[in-house]
Amino acid sequence: MMSYNMNVNPPMQMTLSSCSNYLLSKLENTTTSESQSQPKGKSETPGQTCIKCNTWQTLDQFETYVRTTCSSTYTRNKCHTCRKEDSRTLRLAKKQAPPKPTACDLCGRDDKPLVLDHDHDTAKFRGWLCTNCNTGLGKFGDTIEGLEQALQYLKNHYETTN
Questions:
Q1: Each residue of 13-52: pLDDT tens digit?
Q2: Of 113, 121, 127, 157, which is most buried by a Cβ count within 10 Å?
Q3: DSSP string covering 81-141
């Protein structure tokens, strides 16, 4: 996720709406040095590369939001088109999903909220996971190879310490 730290220090009594407008006006004044690698030959308009479609686009193609603390403005890392596609994929996966169980399909814990886990390429439902397990899979790239590398790393550690 791209962050724009513009050394903003708005007045404490500023409303969220006015804070948002203030920060968005600051964002419009950013330079290309703050944007991700802009292809040569492009205009001097700030932009970034979408992490999904891997295309450089101007910032108006990305959702911008303000943290409620009004200290920073953030730009999402996926463009509007890719975010819409992701929403459609998730809706399709939810239609295929069985009812939520009472415990995580991976770790078995029943004290954490469950979220829908799905294949991001095919939209196929995989299971209901607690937030920890779902985030953990994502951190390893949602791939068997990523998890195998982590497993080997842990095995190597335990072999050298025992």
A1: 444 444 445 545 545 544 333 434 555 555 577 899 998 8
A2: 127
A3: HHHHHHHHHHHHHHHHPPPP-SS-TTT---SS-EEEEE-TTT--EEEEEEHHHHHHHHHTT
